[in-house]
Recover the amino acids of this structure.
């Protein structure tokens, strides 16, 4: 019985991943694609942007497990074996990293750090009159595990936090929740710093275009740590250049790596990081993945399973 690890992205880290999984599951034979041994032995595939079509090679595959929180990199394979459970990664360490990354940019924008940097370059001593924390509303798109944790952290720092998601949810104590297309305008109209952590699905692709960005109050900020295809990049550049949006911190892009000729690189109000906001950790994620594999082996349900209806 074996597990195949497959990625087109993390090649240099595959040994570390293999060790992380092996430590969590000493009884399993861990193979790294393309060195996958006897294909009949492979029962689980643990993947991040796997080479398209390879998962059909394994006739006894029982489940596909994601090495990251999102599963869009799996679903986008047009040649996926049918009927297998696909398991997302909900991992405490990854969620914590995402929270810290979001907090970093919220503080950077809230406390005018982006202005002080440009002032320093011009040797200017200007004390900005800062906006009170309670007057700053942070709007989080996507209130799943990660969005909720970011929201709760910001609430503890006294920010006013609101959230938006596609569907109705049970109430969240300190976070006013908006849902559905009908309430998107209200949500955006109240948001000063927009954080996107939505998963990429057919419903969320290009959901934020020029029209939606214009609904944000003037001088708002964007932090995108969900997926690039959700906020239209050309429209974002237009609103940044018009000065409606003050600055954007982007960790995810419609095309990754971000092509060298993309204009986002050059915009003075855009901060780019190379999809590092929540990096899965081989020890912690290895443990979470092994718990799910053990559940499947015992005939129990792994968590959380990708839902075709929700698209995530
Ligand atoms: C990263 O983007 C992830 O899906 O974990």
């Amino acid at each position: 019985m074996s597990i195949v690890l497959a990625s087109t992205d993390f090649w240099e880290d595959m040994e570390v991943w293999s060790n992380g999984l092996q430590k969590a599951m000493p009884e399993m034979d861990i193979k790294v694609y393309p060195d996958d041994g006897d294909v009949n032995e492979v029962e689980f595939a643990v993947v991040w942007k796997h080479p398209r079509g390879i998962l059909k090679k394994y006739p006894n595959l029982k489940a596909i497990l994601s090495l990251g929180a999102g599963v869009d990199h799996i679903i986008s394979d047009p040649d996926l074996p049918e009927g297998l459970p696909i398991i997302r990664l909900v991992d405490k360490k990854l969620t914590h990293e995402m929270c810290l990354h979001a907090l970093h940019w919220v503080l950077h924008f809230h406390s005018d750090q982006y202005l002080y940097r440009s002032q320093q370059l011009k040797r200017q001593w200007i004390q900005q009159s800062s906006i009170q924390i309670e007057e700053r509303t942070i709007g989080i798109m996507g209130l799943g595990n990660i969005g909720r944790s970011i929201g709760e952290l910001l609430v503890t720092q006294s920010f006013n936090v609101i959230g938006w998601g596609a569907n109705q949810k049970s109430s969240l104590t300190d976070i006013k929740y908006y849902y559905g297309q009908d309430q998107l305008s209200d949500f955006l109209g109240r948001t000063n710093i927009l954080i996107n952590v939505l998963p990429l699905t057919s419903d969320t692709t290009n959901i934020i275009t020029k029209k939606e960005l214009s609904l944000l109050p003037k001088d708002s900020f964007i932090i995108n740590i969900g997926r690039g295809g959700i906020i239209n990049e050309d429209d974002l550049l237009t609103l940044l250049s018009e000065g409606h949006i003050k600055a954007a911190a982007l960790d995810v892009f419609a095309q990754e790596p971000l092509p060298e000729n993309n204009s986002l690189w050059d915009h003075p109000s855009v901060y780019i990081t190379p999809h590092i906001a929540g990096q899965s950790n081989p020890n912690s994620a290895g443990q979470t993945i092994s718990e799910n594999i053990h559940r499947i082996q015992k005939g129990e349900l792994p968590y959380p399973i990708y839902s075709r209806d929700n698209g995530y």
The chain has a mean pLDDT of 96. The pocket of glyoxylic acid is lined by residues 68-70, 278, 280 (CB under 6 Å). The CA atoms of residues 69 and 89 lie 5 Å apart.
